[in-house]
Specification:
By secondary structure, the chain is an alpha/beta fold. The protein is 39% helix and 17% strand. The chain is globular. It has 3 domains: 34 residues; 137 residues, Cobalt-precorrin-4 Transmethylase, domain 1, CATH 3.40.1010; 105 residues, Methyltransferase, Cobalt-precorrin-4 Transmethylase, Domain 2 (2-Layer Sandwich), CATH 3.30.950. Helix 6 crosses helix 7. Bound molecules: S-adenosylmethionine. The site of S-adenosylmethionine has 22 residues, from strand 8 and strand 10.
Length: 294
Amino acid sequence: MRKTSVYLPEALKRQLTDLARRTHCSEAKLVRAAVEQLVSGEHADRRVGLDDRVPGRLVGVGVGPGAADLLTVRALRALRRADVVVAPCTDVAATGRAEAIVREAAPDVVVDRLVFAMDPDPAARRAAVAGASARLVELLDAGDEVAFITLGDPNLYSTFSSIAAGVAERRPSTPILTVPGVMAFQELAARSGTVLADDQQSFLVLPANEESTSASDGPLAAALGDRGCTVVVYKGGRQVAAVAERLRDAGRLDNSVLGELLGLPGERIAPVADVADRPASYLSAVIAPARSGV
Ligand SMILES: C[S@@+](CC[C@H](N)C(=O)[O-])C[C@H]1O[C@@H](n2cnc3c(N)ncnc32)[C@H](O)[C@@H]1O
């Protein structure tokens, strides 16, 4: 190691001290990391403004499906840079999945909980979004950059999209940014050795729901009818039996795979045919791979 001394403007030095306090890293380590980044030409994040703290900005951060090592470097930077990191939870006394991932991957990051009841009733859900958005607006108005963590990716079936819309409605000037996260089906494909699409094959993700999944002429049946299309079924844990029936009807049961609680305690990865008669949790995803040469 060789020593280098630098003079920093007062304001920059204050920011460095603050960052060191928040991240529990030494100032020397932070300076070294910044110089390393500069000399290695790693400027990718500058394009999207990820390295600069923006007061009053809302950042949706995808934390991946469950395994702490699937939290990206960009997500970690966003979490460490934010003034406040919030996690949606159903009860303020319960640790949500996204919070648990961050705790394991970055114990230095403090996560606050934002109660958000995922009520199926549209009016109750609207009220929950309004309450959560109003709380975020308070933080943003106070000049905080707020990171909102979410399982998987913030742009796929995520609470973040409704929360972001609620914030934008109340505070239209809010800059909103998302940091992508690994999606559950990507982890399932990797862990089960499944190719998601190749050559001219197509790819579709759709949510299960009690009515459409059990119907033999519903959207799932129609999607499975195209054998050149890989179909991913989300939110189908409680309807595994009906999903399996649609797969059997389409002649696609034998090579379809289910991933439950990926990267989380109780994880299970199995052919759908082997688990169709057992209950599965909400956090389950199914991949029905396209057949090649179809
Ligand atoms: C509200 S959506 C969230 C999707 C998430 N934003 C993503 O990008 O994967 C919840 C659905 O995602 C899937 N999912 C998310 N995390 C999962 C996990 N760890 N294991 C299995 N499925 C998961 C399940 O299909 C679940 O019903």
